[in-house]
Amino acid sequence: MQTRDLLDVDDLGPEAFRRVLDDAHRMKASRYRGQELAGKTWALVFEKPSLRTRATLEIAVYELGGHPLYLDQRGIGLGEREPVRDVAKNLERWTAGIAARVFRHATVAELAEHASVPVINALSDRAHPLQAIADAMTLEEAFGSLEGLRVAWVGDGNNVLVSLAKALGYLGARLVAAIPEGYDPPEPIPAEIVRDPAEAVVGADAVYTDVWTSMGQEEEAEQRRRDFKGFTVDLALFERAKPTAAFLHCLPAHYGEEVTEEVAYHPRSRIFDQAENRLHAAKAAIRHLLGAA
Ligand code: CP
Ligand code: NVA
Question: Homologous superfamily of 131-275 in CATH?
Answer without folding.
Answer: Aspartate/ornithine carbamoyltransferase (3.40.50.1370)
